[in-house]
Amino acid sequence: MKLEEIKLPKIGQRIVRSMIGVALCFGVYYLRGEKGIPFYSALAVLQCIQPYWESSAKMAKQRTIGTFIGAFWGLAVLLIELYVFPDAVQYSVWGHMFIALMTGAVLYTTVLLDRKNTSYFSCVVFLSITVMHMTDASPFIFVYNRIVDTLIGVFMAVIVNFAHLPRKKNRDILFVSGIDGALLNKENAITPYSKVELNRLIMDGAQFSVSTMRTPASIREALSEIHFKLPIITMDGAALFDSNENSYLKTYTLPYRQAQELMSFMDDMGMTCFTNVIVDDMLIIYYEEFTNDAQRSIFLKLKKSPYRNYVKRRLPEGEEVVYFMVIDKTAKIRSAYEKMQEKGYIEKYKILTYPSVEYPGYSYIKIYNKEATRKNMLGNLKEMLHLEKSITFSSLKDQGDIWIEDSDENMVVRELKKLYEPVKWKFWTGSKDNSKK
225 and 277 share a domain? Predict the structure, then answer.
């Protein structure tokens, strides 16, 4: 790899906030007249600064409770060793064995108080008091400073994580993004920055969804760590899927009579297809005997998914079809498409054809209801949410409101942040009216 091709990851907000938090801990140390040990404050602030506000608050709570449990038992052990067994105060085998025994008391206390998630923090505090300061002349002062130092770090972490410029929240706009080439980078993955920031924006109330040619199963696999709250537009606008309820809220389907006509056409062309049908909120994919290696490869790769249900049989009578998918040699696909034009199918149905990237020499045909478009389904979603405004992000030029030129640069999430929570600059100039900005 050439030097100019190496791309270093950008410095994220967590790194910046951590540096600020540690600096504040040292600042408090000097303001206190250099009392205490800022090392413990810095440790606490680093542990409590988390990607999301909720996780940061949870960690701060755990750190505080764990500190008090560990400090209580640490002080108890120091007092016992100083006044009950003074000969064991020095670093001796018996002194260390006693500390090991009392570590169990610390852990058991977290169980009794139903605070098992604080056990590690409790033991860290306990051991730092008993092992590192066993011979201190005044254990009370150290334990006091240990608690204060930790609480300073926790408090600094809460301040740093909560602090931000005053921002307007545009919760009346529906933001919709494509997935491939937009949210996903060239490695077909969402970057850590986009994952953290997108989840934060969604939790904050941003009305965000995606619109894609993928099925719900494929979306789950690609964006499993994104906590969607809104329904998502799938199958190129043929279905609106609620991932939280595992329910299809709206579909554009091909009636059985039209599906029969299309299957007869494919029989005449010597092609077989994957027939996608929704039955009781389950995606059923009917298939027949394979006629090429690409079909077989797709089936073997996807059939293991718990979100896909393959059934080897022809479409049952009366069932409606969400879409047909055919993959075959490119020459055969072109010939079939020309026949469809002759029969007037292009005007009657929505038909997409494109070459396969994964299977060179092969191409796809997908056939949908004529009304199954992303634009139509976006209108349905806006009506369902009672929203009038929408902004779409697309990797295809002229296909969305905002063109995403480079998904590797986290463009979708960066643009989303600017549009959803713009900084209220008028706040700083004393203006009381920010609604028109």
Answer: no
pLDDT of residue 228: 95
> Which residue stretches of 80-183 are H helix?
93-112, 119-130, 139-162
Question: Is 205 a member of any domain?
Answer: yes
Which residues have CB under 8 Å from 132's CB, separation 6+? Answer: none
DSSP-based three-state secondary structure for 291 = coil
Residues 95 and 53 in one domain: yes
**Separation between Cα atoms, residue 420 and residue 410, nearest integer Å:** 15
Interatomic CA distance for residues 414 and 131, integer angstroms: 48
Partners of 309 in beta bridges: 284
Rounded to 5°, the CA angle 75-78-84 comes to 125
| 383 and 361 in a common domain | no
Q: What is the CATH number of the domain that holds 315?
A: 3.30.1240.10
How many angstroms separate the CA atoms of 64 and 150, rounded? 8
Distance CA 210, CA 35 (A): 53
Least confident of 378-392, 401-415, 418-432: 418-432
Concatenated DSSP letters of 55-80? HHHHHHHHHHHHHHHHHHHHHHHHHI
Give the phi and the psi of residue 67 in degrees, each rounded to 5.
-65, -45
Q: Are 47 and 62 in contact (CB under 8 A)?
A: no
Contact 190/184 with Cβ under 8 angstroms? yes
pTM, 2 dp: 0.73
Residues 203 and 228 in one domain: yes
Which residue from 35, 36, 41, 37 is spatially nearest to 22, judged by alpha carbons? 41
- Same domain, yes or no: 28 and 157: yes
The pLDDT assigned to 430 comes to 40
- Amino acid (1-letter code) at residue 403: W
Asked if residue 341 and residue 301 are part of one domain, the reply reads yes
CA angle, corner 343, sides to 341 and 349, nearest 5?
70
DSSP-derived secondary structure for 230-288:
S-EEEGGGTEEEETTTTEEEEE--B-HHHHHHHHHHHHHTT---EEEEEETTEEEEEE-
Q: What is the pLDDT of residues 89-148, one digit of tens each?
A: 555 677 778 888 889 999 999 898 888 888 888 888 888 888 776 555 566 777 887 788
Q: Indicate if 107 and 29 belong to the same structural domain.
A: yes
Is 60 found in the same domain as 43? yes
As beta bridge partners, residue 402 has 393
Quote the DSSP letter at residue 189.
Answer: S
- DSSP letter at 316 equals P
**pLDDT at 432 > cutoff 60:** no
